[in-house]
Specification:
Length: 258
């Protein structure tokens, strides 16, 4: 795992030492390497997308690709943070919305897979393994930064926000798609009430989790200290206010209840 030791310090909101953080970060990296490259997980996700299209659920309406295409917005140089196995940047290149990308993720396994695909297809994507809690980004380099489904795993949110802000060119865009609800999944009572009422009326076949291969009977508030990912939803409830200190909202999709 690549980090920048010269600037390593943890946010004052955490009680972790750097040594403790390193141990947890190694676990985090391994977990996401397994999840992002797991064939069964990818199969279920693709089946879910196909079913949604067949049922006319119009999930494509939330596509950032479609959003930029409709507005004829294109970019020269993009940065994909928390890129995983590289799907987002490949889709942007395929859609001719961006000319080239840098891409960063903490998972060495995911980056290795993404790099292999990019090299095989001769794609202008330049991958690196970095811990986004301590990354260093070049100033005034990108006109697009993609931040998808990883900010809720970041401890040093203020630091990363400042690095992203620094890396964008004037009038550059930051796209965030993330969970911004209760930290450590400590669900609000109303959320639990509503979702469990929905579960009560759903047939059992609709409550089956194909990834975990079990039937969901009830949603409960988990033990925040026993979540599989050590940084799961660590400061998710703070993402919006922290980023609004530096960024203006150009457009936003109405948040989903769940």
């Amino acid at each position: 795992m690549v980090v920048h030791s010269m600037i390593r310090s943890l946010d004052e909101n955490t009680n972790l030492t750097l040594e403790e953080y390193d141990e947890l970060a190694a676990i985090e990296s391994q977990i996401w390497a397994e999840r992002l490259t797991n064939p069964r997980r990818l199969q279920v996700i693709n089946e879910d997308k196909q079913a949604a299209q067949e049922l006319g659920l119009n999930r494509e309406n939330l596509s950032i690709i479609k959003y930029f295409k409709e507005r004829q917005i294109t970019f020269e140089y993009g940065l994909s943070l928390g890129c995983g196995a590289g799907r987002a940047e490949r889709e942007f290149l395929k859609a001719r919305l961006c000319q080239k990308f840098d891409a960063i993720d903490i998972s060495e396994g995911a980056i290795a897979k993404a790099t292999a695909v990019a090299e095989a297809d001769v794609l202008p994507i330049y991958y690196s393994v970095q811990d986004l809690n301590f990354c260093l980004l070049e100033e005034n380099k990108y006109d697009l930064v993609l931040a998808q489904t990883f900010l809720h795993h970041i401890i040093n949110l203020e630091y990363l926000r400042d690095e992203i802000y620094k890396s964008l060119k004037p009038n550059g865009l930051l796209y965030i798609n993330d969970f911004m609800g209760e930290a450590r999944f400590q669900w609000h009572e109303k959320r639990l009430e509503y979702v469990n009422k929905i579960l009560d009326v759903l047939p059992e076949s609709y409550r089956y989790n194909y990834l975990r291969e079990n039937t969901i009977k009830q949603i409960e508030r988990p033990d925040g200290d026993k979540l599989k990912s050590p940084f799961e939803s660590i400061r998710s409830d703070e993402i919006i206010p922290i980023f609004l200190e530096k960024f203006d909202v150009v457009d936003a999709v109405k948040p989903m209840l769940l």
